[in-house]
Every structure is written in C-alpha cells, then in structure tokens.
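stage 2 :: seqdesign
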C-alpha cells in the first residue's frame, strides 16, 4: 500500500438510535468504508435516528448532516459522506466512481454514468466467481495501479434483484423493493501483478453492442467519472493516461446483464 493510501485510512463508529423499521446490523457489519485505520486517527461518528416527525436523520460527529423521509436516500447519502471524506484524504491520486472485481486474475474496472448498470453487472460478475473489491470508489495510483477505497454492500434495484434471482438472499431490504447485498467475505486489495481491464457502460437500451474506444476517449471518460477536481490537473491526467495505456478495454451498450457478463468474461480470457 502506498503512503498516499495509508494517509486515506479512515475509521467510523456507527450508532442507530430509535427504530428504523429495517435491520441495519447486516448492512454495517459488512460495511468496510476505507483501508484499515492508521494508528492515531480519530473515528468519525455517524448516528442514525428516526425523528418524531418520521424523518430519518444522519448526524456526523454530533452535528445534523442530512434529513429525509426515505431510508434508501439516507443510506445513499451516508455512502456519499463516507466516500467524500475518503476522497478528500487522498491528495495525490485520482479517485474514480467505479466498480472493481477480479475475474480470472484480471482486475475488471466497470465505469459509466449513474444508472448505466454498474452495480448489476458487478453482482453478475460475482456470480461468475469474481472477487469483489469495490462498488463505489477506486483509487488510481501514480503508476496507474488500482487500490480499492470504499468497499460496501452492493445496492440493487428491485428489478435487478429479481433478474439476478437474488430476492431471497438480501439481508437488508428497503421499502422501495431495493436491497443491499453483503460484501463477500474474501474481499481484498488488488494485487500489483494483476492485469487490468476496463469496461465502460454506455446505455441499457437495445441489443448488446461491443466496441473498443480509442485510448484518448477512454481516458476522457475516466476523468469524467472522477470524484475530485485534481483529476483535471496535468498530474491527474497523466495518472489516468497511464491507466488507460496499460489495460485492455471495451465499451458495452444494450443487452442483458448475462450477455454483458459473458462479454467481460471473454475479454479477460482473450490474450
């Protein structure tokens, strides 16, 4: 682990006050928000409660940070608050909003805009035997290597759960029908000797289309999916360019999640 990643180590204390109508224990027992805590770091305290007016509230270090009537929105906001703090603690790396699994010895980074199907494809790749790294944020280090920064249970819509046949294995189910899959117990950091493949999702409508974008197009797309402005600096652009030059990559649009997962499997098995 690089010095930059050691500096981004964070620790969190979770407290649930009052009854929230769902069991959050299974969610936070598997929530691994950052790299292991560095010695001397103070824990960030996150407290959930249901107020008398039926609002769900999130407090951070004793200060009210967010209120909503929707528990799913509360959890989404919590993930964002954790991610933002982790990203802010990484000064010299680019952090991408992406999923990463390891399949057949290859780190597969799944990128694309919100709603493109990253989490659904991630769950499908796990069903093929891949190793989970992150479904939220990944660090791109100076040498173009990947390092997971936020490992969290995978959020899937009710449609995705039904499509993948996972309705009965979700420990945390929300009132809107969506749910969170637990992180597999063998989650780990990427290996330095593993190859990297990037899959960019471009849309869900129509039949499956596979294309190989130019490396300049790939790098520009990764910059768009970065969390921090320093990805737009010359240093950040060089980091993303280094990643794009050392990986195989495809762009997928349309098709079923099974077709997409099979395309990724073929990609990582092709010399």
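stage 2 :: out
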């Amino acid at each position: 682990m690089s010095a930059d990643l050691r500096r981004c180590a964070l620790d969190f204390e979770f407290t649930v006050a009052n009854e929230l109508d769902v069991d959050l224990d299974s969610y936070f027992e598997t929530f691994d928000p950052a790299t292991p805590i560095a010695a001397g770091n103070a824990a960030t305290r996150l407290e959930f409660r249901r107020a008398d007016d039926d609002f769900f509230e999130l407090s951070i270090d004793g200060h009210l940070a967010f209120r909503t009537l929707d528990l799913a929105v509360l959890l989404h906001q919590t993930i964002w608050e954790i991610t933002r703090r982790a990203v802010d603690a990484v000064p010299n790396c680019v952090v991408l909003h992406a999923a990463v699994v390891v399949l057949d010895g290859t780190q597969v980074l799944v990128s694309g805009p919100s709603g493109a199907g990253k989490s659904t494809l991630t769950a499908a790749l796990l069903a093929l035997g891949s190793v989970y790294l992150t479904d939220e944020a990944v660090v791109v280090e100076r040498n173009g290597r990947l390092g997971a920064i936020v490992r969290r249970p995978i959020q899937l819509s009710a449609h995705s759960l039904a499509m993948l046949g996972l309705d009965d294995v979700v420990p945390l189910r929300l009132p809107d029908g969506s749910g969170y899959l637990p992180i597999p117990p063998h989650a780990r950091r990427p290996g330095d000797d593993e190859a990297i493949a990037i899959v960019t999702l471009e849309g869900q409508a129509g039949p499956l289309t596979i294309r190989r974008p130019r490396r300049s197009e790939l790098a520009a797309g990764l910059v768009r999916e970065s969390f921090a402005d320093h990805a737009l600096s010359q240093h950040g652009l060089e980091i993303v360019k280094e990643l794009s030059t050392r990986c195989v990559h495809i762009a997928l649009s349309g098709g079923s999640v099974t077709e997409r997962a099979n395309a990724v499997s073929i990609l990582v098995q092709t010399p």
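stage 3 :: structure notes
- The first strand starts at residue 12 and ends at 17.
- Residues 3-88 form one domain.
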